[in-house]
Design brief:
Distance between the termini of chain B: 51 Å
Number of domains of chain B: 3
Structural class of chain A: alpha+beta
CATH architecture of one domain in chain A: 2-Layer Sandwich
Oligomer: heterodimer
Largest sheet of chain B: 7 strands, mixed
CATH class of the largest domain in chain B: Alpha Beta
Shape of chain B: globular
Helix content of chain B: 25-40%
CATH topology of the largest domain in chain B: Aldehyde Oxidoreductase, domain 4
Strand order of the largest sheet of chain A: 4-5-10-6-7
CATH superfamily of the largest domain in chain B: Aldehyde oxidase/xanthine dehydrogenase, molybdopterin binding domain
CATH topology of one domain in chain A: Enolase-like, domain 1
Number of strands of chain A: 14
Shape of chain A: globular
Number of helices of chain B: 20
Order of helices and strands of chain A: EHEHEEEHHHHHHEEEEEEEEEHHH
Largest sheet of chain A: 5 strands, antiparallel
Radius of gyration of chain A: 19 Å
Strand content of chain B: 25-35%
Largest interface: A-B, 23 and 26 residues
Strand content of chain A: 25-35%
Distance between the termini of chain A: 51 Å
Radius of gyration of chain B: 27 Å
Strand order of the largest sheet of chain B: 3-7-1-16-13-14-15
CATH architecture of the largest domain in chain B: 2-Layer Sandwich
C-alpha cells in the first residue's frame, strides 16, 4: 500500500474541488467501512481520500412529517434508526440500516456510503428505492438530483462524474397507510452479505393496493428496481394469489449468477420467497400505519 | 457429574482466575504481532497466483532496486532437507516436503504457495516490492479433487511420487513402486467383514463428501527472527511447540539445533494449525542476508491460502445390523485430500470413525491423495470429524430401519472397556456409555421439540488423545509461593491448570504458584501443545517435581526436629513428625525455613507419558429448518463428554463448547470455495462463514468425570473431541426436522432447499 493523501474538506465546494483535482485517483471518505477495506485489500489504488465527515451539511439528519426525510451523505446508520420519528415513518429503511454489518459498522458506516459503494448487495439501496428516495448531487457543474433506482450503473460504479459528490438522500414523506419492509437472506444471523435482499413498500386503501414498489439486491450487477413486480399489485387486493404473482414478476426481473454465496437457481427461488415475505410484512405495517 | 469415586481435592476442580488474565484483559500480554526490535525489517511473501505451475525463472532485480528494500530470498537459497517423515499432531510432515512448502523450489503446487520473500524498511515497501518481482510461470493443469487425483490419466503433482502401503498408522510403509498422486494406502481390519455383513438384517451404504475447512484461529501466523553474527538464531513467535519448531528449523536450515532458540510469545489460537513452520524460515533467511532482525506477519487471506487447513474428504460408509439392533459389520473407504504434499490425517480418521461402538467386523480403507491445495495440517481431533460424519449418519439410518431410538441404538452398541477398536487395541477404562446414558437422563432428551420443522439429532465420537514428553521446574520461594517454569505454549489454559496441580500437591492456593512459559534454552524438552496432552503430561511432570520437593523438605523438617527424614510425613499441606504429633509445619512455614536448613530448593523433571487417556462423547442437538430458505437454526445443544478429572472447571467447559462451535461451523457453512482453476474465492472471514455469537445458543455441557486411572490426578485429554460429533448430529437433526439426509458438507441453505425440492418432486 502506497502513502495516500488525506484531505478533510470543510465545505461541499472544497470537497468537490479536491476530488475534481485528482479525478479517478481520489474518492470520498465517510465512515470508511468499505473504502478502507478495499484499499487495504489492494482492490483500489488511490492518491487521495477526501473526508466528508467535517462538512456540516453532510452530517445533517432532518425529518418533517410533511416534507419528509433528508439524510446527509455522511450520517451513520445508527443515527437514522436511533431517531424514533424516522424509525416509525420509514420502516423499510430502518430494517436495512439496522442489519448492515454489526453494531460497530452501523456506528460508523453511512447510508450515503452504502449507496455510493454501489455493491449489488448494498442493503440500504433496495430499501431506499422502495421508499422512492432521491440522491442530491453536487459537482463542478452544479447540483442535480437522481432517483436512487437510477444511481448505480455497474458493480462499484454510479452516475457520479469526476468531482461530483452525494450530498444527501431525500426520502419523501410516506402517504397514509404506507408500509415498507426490507429483508435479506444470509446463512448466518449477522455480519454477512445478502444472498438475496428484497425491499418492498406499499400504500393500501382498505385491502386494495394503490401503490407498490419492489427492489432487489444481489440478483444482478446493480440493485434492481422491479417495476413490473410492483405494478402487478397496484389496483388489486392484497391477497395471497396477487402477492404470489408479484413475487413471480420479481423473479423474472432478476438476472442472478452462481457464486460462493449461492447458486443462480437458489437465488431465483429466494427472490420468490423473500418478495412474498417482504410484501406480507409491508402490508401488515401499512394496515397498522 | 462424577460417575466413579474420585479423590477429594481442594484446588483441582475449581475455577480460579487465570494467571495470565490481567495481562490479557488489559491488552498488555505480548503476542507475536506485538514483538518489536530496534533495527527490525519487515518481510513479506510473494505467493503463487496459480494452483499448479512450473517456476521457470524469478527475477528480483527490480524489487531489489526499490529504495528501502534490503533482500530477497527464493527457493534457490534453500538447502535440500532430508527426506524423512515425522509425526505432526496426527498428520505427518516430511522435512523435505516441509521445506518445499515453506518456499517453492521448481514448482508452485497451490494458489498461495510461497515463491519468494522480501525484506524492507516497512511493511508497505515490502508489499510494493512484491509486485516488482517477475516470476515466469508455466501454468500446469491442477488436480483439485482426491478421487479425481487417484485416476490414472491425471497429471502427477510429484512426478516421482509412488504409493506406499501402510499396515498401521505411522508405519513407514512398503513402496509399491507405482507412480501416483496416491501417496499412501492404509487399511484397518478386524474380524471377518463378509461374515459380519451376512449376519446383518439391514445394511446401509452411502457416499459422503466434506470440504476443506480452516481452524479459524484469530491471530494470524507471525514470526520475528534474528540470525546473529555468531550464527545463533532466535525466533520470537506464537506456536504450538517451540521444541518441535526448533527441530523443523534445524532440518530446513541445516543448522545445529543448539544454535536455534525459539521464544514462545502468547498465542491467539492454533487448533493444530500452528504446529508447522511457515514464516519462521524465510524470516531467518532474510535476517541472515541483511544482518537485521526481520518480522513477518500474514494477512487473513495468506492464512487461508498459505497455511494448513483440514482435508476435504470423499468417503463411503456401509454398516449392517441385526433386527434386534446389534451392529455386525462396518466398512468404510476414506479418500483424504492431503494437499500439495503427503500426510493427511486419514489414518487418525480411520482409527476414530467407528470407535465409540463395539463392532466385531471392521474394514477401513484409507487413501492419502495429493492435490493442488495447501498442505493439510492438524485441526482439533485431526481426520476424525470427517470420518465420524459418515459413520454417525449411516448409524442413524440403521437405527431408523431397526426401529430404535437413535440414542438407544448407540447405547446398545456402545464400546466398553476391553472391547476392541478397529486396529485391534482393547479399550482401557473410560466413560463412553456413561456419556450416552447421561444424555438419555438429561432434561434436553426429555424435552418436547415444540414446533414444526424441528428435529433432534445425536452423534457420538472418539478421539485417542496423545502422549508426549514434558519438562518443568519449580523453585520454592521464602514466602511460601512457588515459581513454576514450563515449556509448553499455553493455548487453552494449561498454564493455570498445571499451576493448580502444583498448588494441590503442596496444599497452597493456585494464586501462590507463579507459572511462566520458557524458551527452548531455558527449560527441558516439551512436546507439542497438541493431542489434548498438555495438561495431562505437564501435570505428570508437576507430580514428579512436587514429590521430589516434598521429599527434600521432609529432610529439612527432620533436621529442624532432630530426627530422620523417614519419621516425617506430609499430608494436606502440612509436614509433621510421625512420632510427635505436636511437631508440624505447613508448606508455607517450611518454605521460610529453607535458608536456615541448607539453602534453597528447586527441582526439575522430565516425563514421557505414553497415552493421554481416550476421549468419548455424545452430542444432542435440536434444530429448526426453514423449508423455504434452507436456513438451519440451532435451538438447543448438549454435549456430554468424559473429561476425566477436571482440573479447571471453566476451562474444561470452554474447551467442550469451543470445539462444538467449530464443529457446527464445519457442518453448516464453512468451506474453501474453489473455482475450477483451484482459486479460493472466499479467503476472508466475511465469506468464510464461521458461526458468530448470534448463530449459537448457549452450548450446554454434561461433564462426566471418569478419572484416567493411568494419571496421578486422573487427567484425561479434553480439548479436541468436541469438534467431532456436530457434523453427524446436525445432519441427523436436519433429517429429523425436514426429512432430507444431507451427505455433502457444508449443509448450506441452498443444498437443503435443493434436497427438499428433489424430495418433493420439484426439480426447478
Amino acid at each position: 500500500m502506497r502513502p495516500i493523501e488525506y484531505v478533510a474538506a470543510k465545505t461541499v465546494q472544497e470537497a468537490v474541488k479536491s476530488l475534481a483535482e485528482k479525478g479517478d485517483a481520489a474518492r470520498p471518505l465517510a465512515g470508511g467501512t468499505d473504502i478502507i477495506v478495499q484499499l487495504r485489500g489492494g482492490r483500489r489504488q488511490l492518491d487521495r481520500l477526501v473526508d466528508m465527515k467535517a462538512i456540516p451539511e453532510l452530517n445533517e439528519l432532518t425529518y418533517n412529517a410533511s416534507s419528509g426525510l433528508r439524510i446527509g451523505a455522511a450520517v451513520p446508520c445508527y443515527r437514522v434508526y436511533g431517531d424514533a420519528a424516522v424509525a416509525s415513518a420509514y420502516p423499510g429503511l430502518i430494517d436495512a440500516a439496522s442489519l448492515i454489518g454489526g453494531i460497530q459498522i452501523q456506528g460508523r458506516g453511512s447510508i450515503g456510503g452504502n449507496l455510493c459503494n454501489a455493491a449489488p448487495s448494498g442493503d440500504t439501496i433496495p430499501a431506499l428505492i422502495a421508499h422512492s428516495a432521491v440522491a442530491e448531487i453536487a459537482g463542478p457543474g452544479g447540483n442535480r438530483e437522481v432517483p436512487v433506482e437510477d444511481f448505480c450503473t455497474a458493480p462499484g460504479r454510479t452516475v457520479l462524474q469526476s468531482g461530483e459528490i452525494l450530498v444527501a438522500i431525500r426520502v419523501p414523506a410516506p402517504a397514509a397507510h404506507f408500509g415498507a419492509c426490507y429483508i435479506r437472506f444470509i446463512p448466518r444471523n449477522e455480519m454477512d452479505i445478502a444472498v438475496v435482499g428484497v425491499g418492498a413498500s406499499m400504500v393500501l386503501d382498505g385491502n386494495k393496493v394503490t401503490a407498490c414498489r419492489i427492489a432487489l439486491a444481489s440478483v444482478a450487477p446493480i440493485p434492481v428496481y422491479a417495476t413490473a413486480a410492483g405494478a402487478a399489485l397496484v389496483g388489486k387486493e392484497a391477497t395471497e394469489e396477487n402477492i404470489n404473482a408479484a413475487s413471480e414478476a420479481a423473479q423474472a426481473a432478476a438476472t442472478p449468477i452462481s457464486d460462493m454465496r449461492g447458486t443462480a437457481e437458489y437465488r431465483t427461488h429466494l427472490i420468490g420467497v423473500l418478495t412474498r415475505r417482504a410484501l406480507q410484512s409491508a402490508i401488515q405495517r401499512a394496515k397498522e400505519a | 457429574m462424577t460417575t466413579v469415586d474420585k479423590k477429594k481435592y481442594k484446588v483441582i476442580g475449581t475455577s480460579p482466575i487465570r494467571h495470565d488474565g490481567a495481562d490479557k484483559v488489559t491488552g498488555r500480554a505480548v503476542y507475536g504481532i506485538d514483538y518489536h526490535m530496534p533495527g527490525m525489517l519487515w518481510g513479506k511473501i510473494l505467493r503463487s497466483p496459480h494452483a499448479h505451475a512450473k517456476i521457470k525463472s524469478i527475477d528480483a532485480s527490480k524489487a531489489l532496486a526499490l529504495p528501502g528494500v534490503h533482500a530477497v530470498v527464493t527457493g534457490k537459497d534453500m538447502a535440500v532437507a532430508a527426506d524423512i517423515e515425522v509425526e505432526a499432531g496426527e498428520t505427518s510432515l516430511n522435512y523435505m516436503h516441509l521445506s518445499d512448502n515453506v518456499m517453492a523450489r521448481d514448482k508452485a503446487l497451490y494458489k498461495g504457495h510461497a515463491v519468494a520473500a522480501v525484506a524492507a524498511d516497512t511493511q508497505h515497501i515490502a508489499e510494493e516490492a512484491l509486485a516488482l518481482i517477475d516470476v515466469d510461470y508455466e501454468v500446469l493443469t491442477p488436480v483439485l479433487n482426491g478421487r479425481e487425483g487417484m485416476k490414472a490419466d491425471v497429471p502427477l503433482i510429484h512426478p516421482d511420487q509412488t504409493t506406499k502401503v501402510m499396515a498401521f498408522r505411522f508405519d513407514p510403509g512398503t513402496d509399491t513402486g507405482e507412480k501416483s498422486n496416491v501417496a499412501g494406502r492404509s487399511q484397518l481390519k478386524l474380524g471377518d467383514i463378509d461374515a459380519g455383513f451376512k449376519e446383518a438384517d439391514f445394511i446401509v451404504e452411502r457416499e459422503f463428501t466434506t470440504s476443506w475447512v480452516h481452524q479459524g484461529y484469530i491471530e494470524a501466523q507471525n514470526a520475528t527472527a534474528h540470525w546473529n553474527n555468531d550464527d545463533n538464531i532466535t525466533v520470537w513467535n506464537s506456536s504450538q511447540g517451540t521444541f518441535n519448531q526448533r527441530q523443523l528449523m534445524a532440518e530446513i536450515l541445516k543448522h545445529p539445533v543448539s544454535q536455534i532458540k525459539m521464544v514462545p510469545l502468547e498465542i491467539g489460537g492454533g487448533f493444530g494449525g500452528k504446529i508447522p513452520v511457515y514464516l519462521e524460515v524465510p524470516a531467518a533467511m532474510l535476517s541472515k542476508k541483511t544482518g537485521h532482525p526481520v518480522k513477518m506477519t500474514m494477512t487473513r487471506t495468506e492464512v487461508f491460502e498459505g497455511t494448513g487447513p483440514a482435508s476435504a474428504a470423499q468417503m463411503k460408509a456401509k454398516v449392517g445390523a441385526t433386527k434386534d439392533g446389534r451392529i455386525t459389520a462396518a466398512y468404510a473407504e476414506l479418500v483424504f485430500e492431503a494437499g500439495a504434499f503427503p500426510g493427511s490425517a486419514v489414518g487418525a480418521g480411520a482409527q476414530g470413525m467407528f470407535t465409540a461402538y463395539n463392532i466385531e467386523n471392521i474394514l477401513i480403507d484409507g487413501y492419502d491423495v495429493v492435490v493442488n491445495k495447501p498442505k493439510s495440517a492438524a485441526y482439533r481431533s485431526p481426520g476424525t470429524p470427517q470420518a465420524c460424519f459418515p459413520a454417525e449418519a449411516v448409524i442413524d439410518e440403521l437405527a431408523e430401519l431397526v426401529g430404535m431410538d437413535p440414542l438407544d441404538f448407540r447405547i446398545k452398541n456402545a464400546a466398553k472397556e476391553g472391547d476392541r477398536r478397529a486396529d485391534g487395541v482393547q479399550h482401557p477404562e473410560m466413560g463412553n456409555l456413561e456419556c450416552m446414558e447421561a444424555l438419555k437422563a438429561s432434561d434436553h432428551y426429555k424435552s418436547d421439540l415444540g414446533g414444526p420443522n424441528r428435529g433432534r439429532g445425536v452423534a457420538s465420537g472418539y478421539w485417542g488423545n496423545a502422549g508426549m514428553p514434558a519438562s518443568c521446574s519449580i523453585a520454592i520461594n521464602a514466602d511460601g509461593t512457588v515459581s513454576l517454569a514450563e515449556g509448553s505454549p499455553d493455548i487453552g489454559g494449561s498454564r493455570t491448570s498445571i499451576a493448580m496441580m502444583c498448588a494441590e500437591a503442596f496444599g497452597i492456593a493456585a494464586e501462590d504458584v507463579h507459572p511462566s512459559i520458557k524458551d527452548t534454552d531455558s527449560i527441558g524438552y516439551n512436546g507439542l501443545t497438541a493431542g489434548s496432552s498438555t495438561t495431562l503430561r505437564n501435570g505428570w511432570a508437576v507430580f514428579e517435581v512436587t514429590n521430589q520437593a516434598i521429599e527434600l523438605i521432609k529432610a529439612r523438617a527432620a533436621r529442624l526436629w532432630e530426627t530422620e527424614p523417614e519419621n516425617v510425613d506430609f499430608a494436606d499441606g502440612v509436614f509433621f513428625s510421625k512420632a510427635e504429633k505436636e511437631l508440624k509445619l505447613t508448606f508455607k512455614e517450611m518454605a521460610g525455613k529453607l535458608m536456615e536448613t541448607g539453602g534453597p530448593i528447586s527441582v526439575a523433571a522430565s516425563v514421557a507419558p505414553r497415552g493421554a487417556g481416550p476421549s468419548f462423547t455424545t452430542h444432542m442437538v435440536d434444530v429448526e429448518v426453514d423449508p423455504e430458505t434452507g436456513k438451519v437454526d440451532i435451538l438447543r445443544y448438549t454435549a456430554a463428554q468424559d473429561v476425566g478429572t477436571m482440573i479447571h472447571h471453566d476451562y474444561v467447559e470452554g474447551q467442550v463448547q469451543g470445539g462444538t462451535a467449530q464443529g457446527i461451523g464445519w457442518a453448516l457453512n464453512e468451506e474453501y470455495f474453489y473455482d475450477d482453476k483451484g482459486q479460493m474465492l472466499n479467503s476472508s472471514y466475511l465469506d468464510y462463514r464461521v458461526p458468530t455469537m448470534l448463530d449459537l445458543p448457549m452450548l450446554d455441557t454434561i461433564l462426566v468425570e471418569h478419572p484416567n486411572p493411568d494419571h496421578p490426578f486422573g487427567v484425561r485429554g479434553v480439548a479436541e473431541i468436541s469438534v467431532v460429533p456436530p457434523l453427524g448430529a446436525l445432519a441427523n437433526a436436519i433429517y429429523a426436522a425436514v426429512g432430507v439426509r444431507m451427505r455433502d458438507l457444508p449443509m448450506a441453505p441452498h443444498k437443503i432447499v435443493k434436497a427438499l425440492q428433489e424430495k418433493n418432486g420439484k426439480t426447478k
